[in-house]
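Weekly sync, protein design subgroup
Attendees: M.S., D.O., the rotation student, P.L. (late)

Item 1: inverse folding check
M.S. brought a backbone from last month's batch and wanted to see whether the design step gives back something sensible before we order anything. D.O. pointed out we never logged the input encoding, so this time it goes straight into the notes. Structure tokens as presented (316 positions):
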């Protein structure tokens, strides 16, 4: 679906038709994050009780990761759990905000490759397979660290990117390691008060330069996914006066809700999102509430698919 946010006009087609809506001089900004096999299964040595872990991000202390746990009530600082099937012993160092700092003196990357599982979205009600390690990735995934794929990027193929390049469309690569907090439902009455978990981002100078170049010659900056949108707007907020955005890395908890003035992007490729999600608020801030609601009504009437493996929308 293509939504013209200025007129509200809606055009339907297949994803390759997006080429017809791109222009020479545009830049597609892609999120190069790569999903890690962040789900671990473990047991408590004393009782044999099962514990499921979702690693979220490395902690400041070497050899330690912050993780979500189910059930979390059985974990306390000082307790240990054993990874299944390898038997590696993880020690709970701290508990904070519903997450647990787990320490191990071995190679975490090797442990995840050996015993980790792909953290498929919870509505996919099957066990992950070896094939999911590549299928739940974008074709441009390069930098390990995400626990969920930047799903707007799943629509892109090498052939599409090559065809876009032949049309004079360039690409820029950034990173935002998607965490579970991205999908946390908005439960507060005022969406501006929704707490968004910080996620690591990186905007290389090459990407910043490509964005500046596009803006300089009248091309559009097209964010591929809400993760890229938040990354660009974070970099824009940290730019010096008069600059489009600043290269650099850090942690972003940028929440975008209407009304919002976008500084670093002009259009968005995204999937269809759930109500009361921060992702939907972001798209609404760009498209406009009434135009977006009309587009979603049309999508439902046409049988469009929602969620991570669903259909795409181009808000231009």
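Designed sequence read out in the meeting:
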């Amino acid at each position: 679906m293509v939504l013209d946010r200025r007129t509200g006009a809606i055009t339907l087609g297949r994803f390759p038709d997006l080429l017809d809506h791109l222009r020479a001089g545009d830049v597609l900004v892609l999120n190069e994050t790569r999903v890690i096999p962040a789900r671990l299964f473990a047991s408590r040595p004393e009782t044999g009780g099962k514990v499921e872990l979702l690693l979220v991000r490395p902690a400041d202390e070497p050899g330690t990761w912050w993780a979500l746990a189910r059930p979390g009530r059985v974990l306390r600082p000082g307790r240990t759990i054993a990874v299944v099937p390898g038997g590696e012993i993880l020690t709970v160092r701290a508990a904070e905000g519903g997450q647990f700092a787990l320490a191990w003196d071995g190679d975490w990357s090797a442990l995840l490759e050996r015993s980790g599982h792909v953290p498929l979205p919870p509505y996919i009600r099957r066990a992950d397979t070896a094939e999911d390690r590549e299928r739940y990735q974008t074709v441009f995934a390069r930098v390990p660290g995400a626990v969920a794929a930047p799903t707007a990027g799943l629509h892109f193929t090498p052939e599409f990117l090559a065809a876009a390049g032949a049309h004079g469309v360039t690409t820029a690569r950034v990173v935002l390691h998607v965490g579970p907090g991205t999908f946390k439902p908005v439960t507060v009455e005022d969406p501006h008060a929704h707490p968004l978990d910080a996620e690591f981002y990186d905007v290389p100078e090459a990407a910043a330069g490509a964005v500046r170049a596009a803006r300089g010659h009248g091309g559009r900056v097209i964010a591929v996914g809400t993760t890229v949108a938040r990354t660009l707007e974070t970099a824009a907020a940290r730019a010096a006066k008069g600059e489009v955005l600043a290269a650099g890395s850090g942690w972003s908890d940028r929440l975008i809700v209407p009304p919002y003035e976008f500084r670093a992007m002009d259009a968005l490729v995204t999937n269809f999102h759930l109500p009361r999600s921060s992702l939907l608020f972001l798209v609404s801030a760009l498209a406009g509430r009434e135009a977006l609601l009309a587009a979603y009504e049309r999508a439902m009437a046409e049988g469009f698919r929602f969620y991570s493996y669903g259909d795409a929308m181009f808000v231009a």
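Discussion: The CA atoms of residues 1 and 199 lie 29 Å apart. Residues 39-115 form a domain with the Thrombin, subunit H fold (CATH 2.40.10.240).
Action: P.L. to compare against the previous round before Friday.
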